[in-house]
Amino acid sequence: MAGRKPLPTHLKLLKGTARPHRMNKAEPKPVVATPEPPDHLDEAARATFAGVAALLARHGVMTELDAGALARYVVIRGRWLEAEAEVKRRGPVVKTSNDNIIQNPFLAVANRCLAQMAQIESEFGLTPSSRSRIRMAEPAEAADPFEDFLSRGKKA
Fold it and tell me: What is the pLDDT of residues 113-126, one digit of tens each?
């Protein structure tokens, strides 16, 4: 499908751009949850996954359906940390066996990981600019059953 990818309804509601005639009535509505880290993650990635998942769930944007995207994020984050360590160790430029000076290949890996992380962070609202586009709607006031009872009694 060409064009921008559609936003989920809950994000349209938060941003204030929802139009009733354009809403997907059959859109799945997953519940906020903190999923378990996938088995394929190493120990450091599992810890990062658990921490970020809990943070996102507290803010209402983590569901079980998002576990794959978050797992990709923590894997890429781990790769970025490894590449950054190599750039620190060797520097941004290195000498080849022929005494040519080139950009450290780990710098390219680190930069690519940063770009991928930024994309995923934006999807989860983890950057200031992605958060600035979200407007929280005022919470609907919960009906008080006792007030309802009293108001029905006055009408009778």
Answer: 999 999 999 888 88
